[in-house]
Design brief:
The chain is of the alpha+beta class. The chain has six helices and six strands. The chain has a six-stranded antiparallel beta sheet with strand order 1-6-2-3-4-5, with helices on both faces. A hairpin with a 4-residue loop joins strand 4 and strand 5. The model has no long low-confidence stretch (mean pLDDT 90).
Length: 165
């Protein structure tokens, strides 16, 4: 995955669009090359992902999936979402095939998007848009609600490649 450590979310509501931007740029290098102003692109993606949903409430899983799918459809893949119920096997399989996976985390309610970009030896490599940096966490910590290094303890939803077009 290319280095997108220079990309940080611009405010408290653009973590989802930032995750979608980084995933889309990694999967569609032509798109990535056109992003000269990441902050402006985050806000454009936020509007596109949240047609009806209030932007002050963040970005929904279907919205993040739709933005990424615009860049993966030519590759024969659509992204979808599902509630996290403790099974990371599909996410691990995806990132091992170089498909990044969005992870929505929070406390008692969903609050923040992270992008899983790699897996090695029982550890997940995650891009955190709040910091514009990568953090590594143990796979068992996701199901065990020990995600505090990412900012919140609990996983709520996954956005991952689901089907071919």
């Amino acid at each position: 995955m290319p280095d997108y450590s220079f990309v940080r979310q611009t405010d408290g509501f653009t973590c989802g669009p930032t995750v979608a931007l980084v995933a889309s740029a990694a999967l569609d290098p032509e798109y990535g090359a056109t992003v000269t102003d990441p902050a402006a692109e985050q806000h454009r993606l936020h509007r596109a992902a949240n047609f009806i949903w209030p932007r002050k409430l963040g970005t929904t899983p279907p919205g993040v999936a739709a933005v990424i799918s615009r860049h993966t459809a030519p590759l024969g893949v659509r992204y979808g979402w599902r509630v996290f119920r403790g099974d990371l096997a599909p996410a691990i399989a995806a990132v091992e095939c170089d498909w990044p996976v969005g992870l929505l985390i929070g406390n008692s309610i969903p609050r923040h998007w992270i992008l899983i970009i790699g897996h090695d030896n029982g550890r997940l490599q995650c891009f955190n848009p709040a910091r514009g940096s990568e953090t590594t966490i143990a796979v068992e910590d996701v199901a065990g609600r020990k995600l505090d290094p990412l900012g919140f303890p609990r996983a709520f939803a996954l956005v991952l490649p689901r089907r071919t077009v």
